[in-house]
Structure formats: structure tokens, C-alpha cells
Amino acid sequence: MPFEKVAPKMDFPAMEREVLAFWERTRAFDRLREINAGKPPWSFLDGPITANNPMGVHHAWGRTYKDLYQRYHACAPWAVTTAANASMANTGRSAANASMASAGRSAANASMASAGRTGWGHELRYQNGFDCQGLWVEVEVEREFGYKSKRDIEQHGIDKFVEACKARACKFAAVQTEQSKRLGQWMDWANSYFTMSDENNYAIWAFLKKCHERGFVYKGVDVMPWCARCGTGLSHMEVSEGYRVVGHTSVFVKFPLRQRKGENLLVWTTTPWTLSSNVAAAVKPDLIYVKVKQGDQFYILGKPHFANPRSQPLEGDEKKNAPPLMALSAMFKNNGDFEIVEEFPGEKLVGLTYDGPFDMLDGAAEARGAHQVIAWEEVTEKEGTGIVHIAPGCGSEDYHLGKALGLPRIAPLLEDGTFRPEFGFLGGKRFDAVADDVVASLKERGLLFAKEKYMHRYPHCWRCKEELVYRLVDEWFISMSWREEIMNAARQARWIPEWGLDRELDWLKNMGDWMISKKRYWGLALPIWECHACGHFEVIGGREELQARAVKGWEEFEGKSPHRPWVDAVKIRCEQCGGEDVSRVRDVGNPWLDASIVSLSTMGYFRDRAYWEKWFPADFVVEALPGQFRNWFYALLTVSTMMTGRSPFKTLKGHGLVLDDNGKPMHKSEGNAIWFDEAAEKFGVDVMRWLYASTPPERNVLFGPKHCDDVRREVIIPWWNMYRFFCDLAAVDGFDPNVHKAKAEERTLLDRWILSDLQELTRVAHEAYAHFDVLRFCNEAKRFIDDLSTWYVRRSRRRFYADGWPTDKRVAYATLYEVLASLNRLVAPILPFLSETMYQQLVFRQSPGCAASVHHTAFPAADASLIDRELSSLVQASLKLVSLGRAARKSADLKIRQPLSELVVATGSAAELKAVEVFKDHLLDELNVKRVTVRESVRDLLRVTAAPNMKFLGAKFGKMTADVKKALETADAKEIALCFDGGRSFLLHVGDTTVTLDPTDVTLARSYGETYAGAEEGGTTVLIHRVVTRELRHEGIARDIIRHVQNLRKESGLDISDRIVLSLRTESADIREAIASQAQTIREETLAVELSDAPPGADAFTARVDLDEGALSIALVKA
Description:
By secondary structure, the protein is of the alpha/beta class. The relative contact order is 0.10.
């Protein structure tokens, strides 16, 4: 079928919607799966997206990676993927990463010859995942219902709440499915996995049972981060996600020593509420302490703390906006005269007893006889007073220190964060609302020394955003005493970026035991049945085991999902004491357990072990880096190691965060959040996908109008314009790729060069895609598109305008067609919509019987016989010379449209000298000069002046500076420049002394007089003759006129091949002379069959433009 013309302005989002409809209508995805059924498997494991809200643009980055790598492997040659897998298998971190430069290259080269013979395409599972359970969903449902606390949930019914959570997950899974389709993501949407499924939950039961069988599951008492609003503890993983800068009231408090009247320990805390539960005061034995006398009181504190300046523990703008902190010495000074009367090591304080700050409260009664000074090496010298207030019931470090020393544990808070009634005036009040009450009480009793606002990073609930508190609780844990096994599994995989493995190993090495319980409702029902009669607990490994062990409640549970409250009805018999009323603990699981099992549950580990072996371990997983080292990556590795002893993935790729155009995090509250639907319709998803694919994965991507416009301007529009240029001409000329072919010997140097570079790009594409380095391909593809547009197409444009089908025109068509069709296939994994649109016109319409979609075709193999690296080197050398020539023009303020008489090239590069010889005509045309002159040197034309850089010179030479400056005035500036250009210092004679000048000491100014302007780079100098004669000026005017006529042609909607009748009218004598002398050029360039100064007719397209020489009226009509 003949080519059709392309709309001059494309609505890309509308085009993408048309492609989506085409894929749906033709069952394109299903057809691809049919094509690849039974081929070698390639396994991708999807990290589940949380089905809780519509997608934002931040979700689209990872999903773009997931889609583009699957699209590549669905159509990749087996030779490439087999070699790539071999280079990465069981090689460990360094070998796997080192393979990218060598093994990958050889694999790609091997594909050049063998890809077609050995086959292409892989069978994929295409299984998407939805994360459904946990606080992220619960918090949103609570908001919908207007719940304020857990009490509301229980009053209205846990069953109703859990069903609402399920419904919300299903609702937003459907929303995200449609959004992912809009992104162009091809997945088996009807077979997505849901972490709330029975299969997934029972699979986690099996994992926990195996942990229990190895002795790793235990119930522990500890002080844990606690969210009072959500009423649950948070694991170390979760806490790390929620730090925010807040200001707290910090207090300096006197602890009166019992044995020494008038002497006080000076203690500092940023959590005044914890003083209610103080048990001890800790000092560092070898730290020097001072006793400060002020009035009739003595204060004991660390010597460094007394003297050192203090600052808020923040960075950047956060620190800049925080109020300054007063040094302790200044605080004493504000209170009057003082003196240091004694210095001594902290060990002398150990064992002293003191009166606690709130001993009068009934809740603190247990601590009244326990207040003493203890030794602790962890006391810091950087902040505080050197004496740390210890409350084992209110802080994790305090708890473990108290446990080791046998100190009492006072737990003052209830589940909702309020004080127990026995804490007197604090009773019933929330921990974060009592600072003023505590301060008032301390002040009233003479115990308050000072207070201040202290800004620091403090943990908040990662879901509801409320401030956390540390609270003594019972929780369930998995011991990490077997962490080395997990670390070994992590080492089996390849990590991208490479430092990801080090980050993961560091987390595994230093993390505490995994807290797996939450005192919530919607989540994995921990399969732990605890006997309250004897304390024995058991872990049930699955549904069948639970049914076999049940003694009550099975009928009530039968047919329900294994969630609260239904599974709570089932009772079992205690194997230790025989009790028959053993209930499941009410806790649900840490939500990262849900996604931890998917390498087993989604691949049929418990149903079809042979099927699982086919797909395990996954060839590839990819997720955002921040947080996932301690979340999904860690959880996935932990479960897989326990169950299989192996890493669940061969390659893991991580990526950064999505920030706004200004580099700030996106938040709804800041008004800079961009939702996916909005971005898709405003920018188009191909633009988004290229932006993500072309960003270094370890960095954050800046997303917004500016960066999306950059992609559109630098990649999408140039690519589309070349496609449009070709199709419009092909439609007019009737080009048929099956008829108008080119023989190798007919191709010009430019044709051979662009085809050679295309093969190199194809080779790079295989390396990049196969080794998960799409950034490398994007960089090379962008360069190729630029070279294709600004060099090949522009240099070949006239070849397409010839009448009939002369050889040069036919070869130009055939070459550009081959390049466009091949390049379109290479970018298809990244730009699936644009490439589909182009494929339908370029290939499908022209080749009856070919694949219906570009995504059904084999990824092209590079043709080694077409690669000519010497020719490519020559072209790159010529491009460098053109770039320098343009820079020289710019330095002289001479537009490229103004013809000049001469270009001078001075270079020692053999490639550049040959480029001048081979591409002389191209250089003349591109730089609009009449001749090219090659010289060994332009030193005789160079003028250099040297001025002293006083900023550096004065600091370097001191009193000699004036003499050095005077000597520099008579020095040979050209010699100085020659030394600096050669990387050498210049020796300057100053009287009887010789001094050394470096490039920073001297400011050099170079010029080539009134005749030439120049630019240089890497030993190559290019000059342009800057004198413009009358004849040259007329040519320049004509070029300006041609540009304006072409703009009017475009605005008038004329086809690029339409002939016109042209009228040019002006009052400027210079412009009239230019038109007269350049009439033939103007006619040829504008396709004008007639040129006159006649008045325009009524049907003419007209424009009035201002040239430097005067106004010009343009009128044209189609001939």
C-alpha cells in the first residue's frame, strides 16, 4: 500500500490512545504470548504495587523498566540472552558486573551472525502483583469511615472493617490496572497475584512454621517504636521510612544527690514525658566531669559539654531555619556568677544515689529505691550534659541496658499513648501533650535548670504520619542469628548498581531481629496458637494442618479467608499440656511478610514444584532503591533463603526517587504532586518512559513540564519529524521499499556511514537491554537520532527532490527507509506507542503478510559486514570540525546563513585531515564558506595577551607580586599560551630570579585579529574569515529570505514538494540587489516556478518580515 502523509502536528496522547485501541482490537498481547509459547523461559518477578490509591508518576518509573525489559526479552535473539545469562550466572558481584564490558559485547557480537538461525523470543509469565494488606490500606479505610481509634473498629465490627479493606484493595487494583495499561505495560492482567489471597497467606504460614522448626520464632518483650493512633508497634524497617524534622521541648533537669546536700546531677532530655519513668543516670567512666558552683548549688556535668558550642543536629536548609542553641556555659552565665570547683573522671560518680524527678507519682514507686548513677560507655561527648537519664520502659537502648543491670522497668503508657491513671497529674494525657505540664512541675519544685526548643529528625508513622513513641510491649520476632545464610544468598545475585549488594549486606549485618507482629486487623493472621495455661506456643504451617489440629471453630471458619476475625474462631489442643482451648494470638503480620513469599507462592512452589523450578530464580527484579534494602529485598531474600537456600533472583536492579522539576519531593500538601493520569494526558507516556529510561537509575529523576519538554524537544520531535519528512515525500513520489532498493556499490559515503552507525547502535542495544543498562542505549540512540537528523537527512535532503527516480534518489530513499524501520524497532521497548504507529506505516502497510505489530517482530541483529569504523571515525571528525566552525562564527556574531570566504583548519589529527579531504563539500556547505584551507599551524595569526590574575598571584608571591606583574608585561604571551596548552608551567624571569607561573596565575586572551575568528579543542583550531564582502552579504540576505519563505510555506499548509509562485517586495535597495543577484538560488531553494515583485493576489499567503537591511513583504501561491 502507498505511504500516507503524516499530520504536521501530532497529538501524542491521542495517538497513544489509538494504539491502545488497536492493541485491544487485535489482541496484540495475547498474540505475542501465542507466538512465544514453548520458547525458552525468561522469568520476571514483579514487586507488588500497593493497591490503595491511584498511581502517581513515581510508580511509572519502575513499571517502565519492568515493561521495557520484558518487551526486549519477548523478542530478543536466544544467542544474546543465553550469553548474557551465562556471563552473570553464579559469578558473584564483581565478576557479574565486570562482564558488562566484555561478555556482553561478545554476546552481542555473536548475535550478529547467529540470531536469525538460533531463534528469537522467550516465553514470559507476565504476572503483575498487588500488595493488599497492612496499615497503608487500614489507615485509608479508617478515614473513609471516620474512625479515630482502634476502639471504633472493634465497636463497628472487625469483620466489616476487614471486608472494607478487601474491597478497597480490589477497587484500586482495578484502577491501577487501567493506568498501567495506559502506560503501555503488557501484563497478564487477568492473572495478577494479590498478597491477600489464601494461597499467599498460607504460603507465609509454611515459611513461619519452618522458622519455628529451626527455633527462630519467639515472643519477646522490648521497647519498640509505637504508633499511638494506629495502636501498633513498628519494625526497624518501617521506622527508617518515616523520619521528619520536628521541634521538641528539651529540658535540663537537676537530679539531687542524696548523699551530698546541694549537689545535683545535671541531666538533659528531649522527651520530658520519659522523666516520669526515670530509674537511673548513666555516666561515662573515663570522661572528665566538672562540678560547677552557682549560688548555694553545685551542678555536675561533662567538661566537654560545659565548654563546647552547641548546634541543632540538622543539615542544609533545615539547619539554617532552626533556632540557635545556647552553650551550657552561657546558660550558667545567664543565671549569675559561677565557678568550676572540681574536675574528676566519671567513675567517681558511679554508685551515687539521687532523688528521682517524679518519685511522688504512684506509677514511679518501683524506682524510688533504685535511682543511682551507673557506668555506660555509650554516653556521647557530642550532645547533652554527659549524664544520660535512663528510663528502661521508654527507650530501646535504655531497656537493654536496664535488662543487663537488672533495673526496674516502668511502662507509663497505654496502647493509645496516654499515661496510666497511677501517674497522677499526667494520667489520661497523651505523651506528646504533657511537655508543658512536666516543665511546670519541675519548675515548681526547683528542679528545672533550663528549657529550649530542640530541632531534630524524629521517627513518625510511615502511614498516618503521627509522631512515634517508644513503648514496652510484647511482640513476635524472627531471630536473625542465621543472617549469614541470607548474606550468602544475596551474594549469589548480580546487583545494579553494584553498591546495592554492599548496602544490603550492611543492613543484614547490623539489623536486629525481625519484628513480624502488629496489633492490628487487616493483614496476615499470624499462625501462632499460644496456650495461656502453660505458655507453650505452636506455629501452624497451612490450612490442612489447621483443619487436622482444630478442636473447635472449624465449621465457623470453613469457607472464609484466613484473616481476622474468622480464623480466630479456630481452637487447637496444646501438645504440651493437653489444653483444648488454645487460641490464635490476635496479632497480624508485618506487611513485608506479604510480599516476601511471592517468589514461591506466585510460581506454584506449593502446588507444582516442576513449574516452579522452570521459573525460579527470577532472571530479573526491579524496584525503587530507597527503603527496599531493608524492606522487600531483605524480606524476599530472607524467605527464599529459609525455604530454598538460594537467592530468589539472578539480577536485581534498583532505581531512585521521582522528584519535581526543582528537585523537591512530591507531596499533595506542597501542591507539586503529579498524578499519573494527569501526566499521561499532558505529556504522553512515551515521553515519560524515555525520561525514566534515560535517567541514571541510582539517581533521582526530576519530573515535570521542563524535563518532559526536554525529552519531547530533544528526542521525540526530531524522531517524529524525520518520519514525517520521509512519509510525506514517499507519498508524493510513490516510493515502494519492495521496488526501490539499493545495491551496496550504489551507496554514497553518507549512506555507508549511517548504516554503519546503525549496526553499531544495534550492537549497543543488545548489550544494553540484555544487561539491564537501558540508559546506555538511550544515550547512544539520542546521539544517533541527532546525527541522523542534523547530518544525514539534512545533507541528503536535495537527493529526495530530484525528478523521476535517478539512482542517487532511489538509494537515499532506500537507505533512510532501512534506518527508520530498524531504529524504530530498537526503540520500541522504550517507546511502544510511537514505534507501533511508525511500524504500521513503514512496515505493515508495505509488506503484506508481515507481523501485525512491531512488538511481534524479532529484535534486529547487527550486520557486521556493514560496519565501517574508519568511515564512522571520519564522520565524527568532520562533525567536530563543523562544531568548531560554528563556535568560531558565534564568537564573531556571524549567523550561519551569512556566507564567508574561507575556513582554515589547523590540526595534527590524521583522521581530521582526511575528513577535510573526504568531506570537503559537506564542510563548505554546513559552514557556508567558499573554500577550506589546511595549515600546519595558525600560530602566526594568533594574537595573545596575558594579564595577571591578582587573586592567585598576590597569595602566591606576596611582596614579589609587583615585580612579577611588571615582568609579565614584557613576557611573550604566545610562549605562555604554548606552555599552558602543553600542560607545562611557564618560567618567568623576574630580575635575577625565576618564578613559575601556572594557568591559574595568568588570564590569557586569544584573538586572530580583524580578519579571522576562531575556536579550538584538543589541539585542533578552526578559523573563519570574518570579512563580509558585498557579494557575500547579498548571499546572506538571500539565505534569510529563503528561511522566511520556507516558514510561510509551512504556515500555509503546503506540502514540502509543492511548487509555488513567489512575490518579494521591499523598499530596501540592499534587499532588492540581493534578490536580483541570488534569484536563481531563491527559486531553487523555495521550489518557486516564478519570482517577481508583483502585488499579491487575493488567494496568496502573505507575510511581512523584518530583515537587518529593512522590511520585506512575501506573498506566495501554489503553482
